[in-house]
Amino acid sequence: MNTLMFLLLALCGGVGASLRWLADVVLSRVLPAGFPWAILIVNASGSLTLGLLTGLSLDSTWLAIMGTGLLGGYTTFSTVAVDTQMLAQSGRTEAAWGNALGTLVLCVALAAGGLALGMVLSGAGLPLAH
């Protein structure tokens, strides 16, 4: 990895983390309290975006910068783990399972949907369509 790419990855990671913080603050003010809805939305939107970028077949350098840097900083599965543990410790077992499994299922589904959309938009078509 060259120095410029390293710096771009680091810069985009910082921008992504800042965007996550901003989204968490704004969404937490408007969404119902008691469940980590804001982080679920952040991770879901990041998964969709990464799938889309991958499906668009970006240059591997830009995919690394945007995917690993920006979206790696934006998404936060460690916060899902902490939020899930806190829900479980407070006796909210169903909410804890909902957070953990809901995040997994939703993010995988949105990543797959973004990938499919990106492939269609790029003209590559869907692999199952042939």
Give me a quick take on this structure.
With 130 residues, the chain is mainly α. It is 81% helix and 0% strand. The model has no long low-confidence stretch (mean pLDDT 94).
Poorly predicted ranges (pLDDT <50, ≥5 residues)? none
Binned, the helix content reads: over 70%
How many strands, what sense, and barrel or not for the largest sheet? none
Q: Helix and strand succession?
A: HHHHH
Task: Kindly report how far apart the N and C termini lie.
Answer: 37 Å
The average pLDDT score comes to 94
**Helix-strand category:** mainly alpha
| Count of separate DSSP helical elements | 5
Q: What's the overall geometry? A: globular
Strand content: under 5%
Radius of gyration: 16 Å
- Strand tally is 0
